[in-house]
Structures are given as C-alpha cells and as structure tokens.
Amino acid sequence: MNIFRLVGDLSHLLAIFVLLLKIWKSRSCAGVSGKSQILFALVFITRYLDLFTNFISVYNSLMKVIFIASTVATVYLMYIKFKATYDSNHDTFRIEFLVVPVGGLAFLVNHDFTPLEILWTFSIYLESVAILPQLFMISKTGEAETITSHYLFALGSYRALYLLNWIYRYYFEGYFDLIAVVAGCVQTILYCDFFYLYITKVMWGKKLSLPA
Amino acid sequence: DKDTKAKDEL
C-alpha cells in the first residue's frame, strides 16, 4: 500500500458517499445518471467476486463490501425509493453500446483466459467508460449541481491517483499491469474536460455549466 | 501471459 493508492481509495469512497448523501438528504436524484450507477454496480460485482475466496487484508475486504453495498444502495435509491425524481429523459445513453464491446474486448485481451480473470478484465474495461452516461447527461442538461460536480471530481481523482500508484509500484515493487494502466489512462482522460471546468468554475464558487 | 500476482488492488 502507498499514499497514492490510499488517498485514491479514500477519494473513491468519498465520491460514493457524497453521491449517496446527496440523494438521501435531498431525496432526489435529479442530475444523476442511473445508468452510470448501474454500470458501477456491475463493475464492483464482477471485480470483487474473489471477496470470499481470496483474502488480501481486512482493509481490502472491508472496502470491497462497502463499495458493493453503497453502490447497490445508490441504485436502489435511484430506481426504487426516489424513482419519481429520476430524470430518465436526460439519462438516455445506450449502455449496451458500452457493455457489449467491453465484454468482447475482455474475451480477446486479458492476462489469462479463466472466468475470474475475464470478469476482472471486463470490470476494469467497463469502469474506464462507466462515467460516460453521467457526462453525457450533463452535456444534455448543460449543467450540474455543485454537489454532483464534487462527486465527479472525487471520482475522477481516484483513478488519476491510481496512475501515480502504478508509477510508484513500478519503480519500487516492479509491479506493472498493462490492462489496468491503459484502462486507467482512458478513464482519467475522459474526465479531463470536466476537470478543466471544475477547476476554472466550481473552485471559484460558480456553478458548473457547459458552454451552450 | 499469466501473471501470478494476487489482485491486491481495489
């Protein structure tokens, strides 16, 4: 474990709970893409199947349980409890256009052709594009609530910190996983224009609005 | 190439 990965995991945890609290407190999921949340739930479920078979540490197992539980809870709040506030008119990204190609790629490009490894690879590839429905929804509505932009900033930062973690681990532990690094780069690049807007606008107390 | 490292990252 290194500081980049620890701060990255905490940033990820923060993002998930900022969103969960926003929905719970405001009793509304306006401006939030339910499709992205479904994809994130799929990412965690397919990635943490080894939760009971491969014990790494208490921290690792605890975080896996928290990530799965909190993301499933978010999907529940969005599609069941506060369904009336779900903005389905703007959350129209066709996620099958993500899941199918990512599923195919996981079969073709992976470290080992075993079910667990292919599912892990699928999860890594899917996570890199899972935010697209959310970014697409913001581009359609033209703006995002400030709390939603904080959520996105923390979520985008987590994988950027993981890139630093992989640089650290490469030099100090000789650890390198090309699939995770490439997908992590794609994932972080997708946030670049959002990061620019966040830093130039939200940091100065303005609302995040995309140029019309 | 099968890498034997356990998946220790989240």
Automatic annotation (TrEMBL), chain A:
Any Pfam family matching the protein: ER_lumen_recept
Keywords: Endoplasmic reticulum, ER-Golgi transport, Membrane, Protein transport, Receptor, Transmembrane, Transmembrane helix, Transport
UniProt GO cellular component terms: endoplasmic reticulum membrane
GO molecular function, one term: ER retention sequence binding
Cellular localisation: Endoplasmic reticulum membrane
InterPro entries in the record: ER_ret_rcpt
Gene Ontology terms: biological process: protein retention in ER lumen; protein transport; vesicle-mediated transport
TM ranges: 62-80, 92-110, 122-139, 178-199
Keyword Metal-binding: no
Membrane topology, from the record: Multi-pass membrane protein
Similarity section: Belongs to the ERD2 family.
The protein's name in its UniProt record: ER lumen protein-retaining receptor
Species annotation: Lingula anatina
Lineage of origin: Eukaryota, Metazoa, Spiralia, Lophotrochozoa, Brachiopoda
